Amino acid sequence: MNSGYNPIEFRTESRIKRLKEVIDKRTDTLTVILENVHDPHNLSAVARSCDAVGILEIYLLYHGEQEPRKLEKVSSASASKWLQVKYFDSVENCFQYVKSKGMKIYTTAIGKEAKNLYQIDFKEPLAIVFGNEHTGVSELAYKLSDANIIIPQVGMVRSLNISVACAVTLYEAFRQRLIAGYYDKPQLDSKLRDLLLAKWAEK
Question: Of 54, 115, 162, 170, which has the fewest Cβ atoms less than 10 A away?
């Protein structure tokens, strides 16, 4: 007897439902800028953190003599393919683009005057800059930013791996936005959500 159950159709419907649920949690008012970051493990870990907190688009900035690393080639497929990635070759162009979207830009430069991470209002549109594994955030990025933030620490070594620092920062932003109800309803307009669904459904 044919029950009418189609396992393929069920899997498709279930997958579309899951995609819609994730897209409804995506935000275009929180993002990260990675400046001259090359380590593939750091790139992969940052991509996973961005996906986990619902970030839609991230920016990879490579300038000076730095060769760009394509996130799509070094990051885990389970994370990078759900992110929109834009590449820039100058700090000025990158910052101009981000600010044109109504975002403030905060750097994470070590050794500079900085605000405590837990005193930052992450509910406003914001991009956070994380710098090179060895040299950190560039002086130019620091000067052009709206503020500089620091993760408070009490250990002997007062620095964190970039991917760890990114995760800690993003989850503080996520915590604040979750409490404020940002994830209770879709943050993207319906047209963009439909475009994302059509694109993601093909992956």
Answer: 115
Domains of the chain plus CATH, in order, are: 29-196 (3.40.1280.10)
Dump pLDDT digits (tens) for 92-115.
999 999 999 999 999 999 888 999
CA distance 138 to 70: 20
* 8 A C-beta contact, residue 105 and residue 99: yes
Helix (H, G, I), strand (E, B) or coil at 15: helix
- pTM for the full predicted model: 0.89
Task: Count Cβ atoms below 10 Å from residue 54 Cβ, excluding itself.
Answer: 22
- Cα–Cα distance between 20 and 40 in angstroms, integer? 29
Cα–Cα distance between 53 and 173 in angstroms, integer?
9
